[in-house]
């Protein structure tokens, strides 16, 4: 059950066709969980599976959704974020189109406008992808 009541694009800066989360499942302190129904016509689907760039973008948007969710709770503008670095990216499997994946990010540290997150994409109890990301937040719109 998604915890937001409006369109996910209210929480993230991405727009169609690059929206890679369907909704927010949980925001609890440093942890964020999102779900994505992988549409067969998703821009990152090839040969019936979600490709590695799609998985990485899904992790980044899960991190962005946390920031957007908090901004919405505080009635402040949703800031833009940029991926500064990706570390230890592992793509273990590619999930099939037409299915739902669940992605979790956990904040490791926040220093000034840089946030370190670890992310993991799951499908049917199996890890599909995982990595660490350094995300820079631009509070100016």
UniProtKB/TrEMBL annotation:
<dbReference type="InterPro" id="IPR029069">
    <property type="entry name" value="HotDog_dom_sf"/>
</dbReference>
<protein>
    <submittedName>
        <fullName>3-hydroxyacyl-ACP dehydratase</fullName>
    </submittedName>
</protein>
<dbReference type="InterPro" id="IPR016776">
    <property type="entry name" value="ApeP-like_dehydratase"/>
</dbReference>
<dbReference type="Pfam" id="PF22817">
    <property type="entry name" value="ApeP-like"/>
</dbReference>
């Amino acid at each position: 059950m998604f915890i937001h009541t409006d369109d996910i694009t209210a929480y993230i800066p991405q727009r169609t066709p690059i929206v890679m989360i369907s909704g927010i499942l949980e925001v609890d302190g440093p942890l964020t969980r999102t779900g994505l129904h992988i549409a067969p016509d998703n821009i990152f689907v090839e040969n019936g599976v979600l490709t590695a760039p799609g998985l990485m973008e899904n992790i980044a948007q899960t991190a962005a959704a946390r920031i957007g969710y908090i901004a919405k709770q505080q009635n402040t503008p949703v800031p833009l974020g940029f991926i500064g670095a990706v570390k230890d990216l592992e793509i273990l499997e590619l999930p099939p189109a037409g299915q739902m994946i669940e992605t979790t990010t956990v904040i490791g540290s926040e220093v000034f406008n840089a946030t370190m997150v670890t992310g993991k994409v799951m499908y049917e109890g199996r890890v599909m992808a995982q990595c660490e990301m350094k995300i820079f937040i631009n509070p100016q719109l």
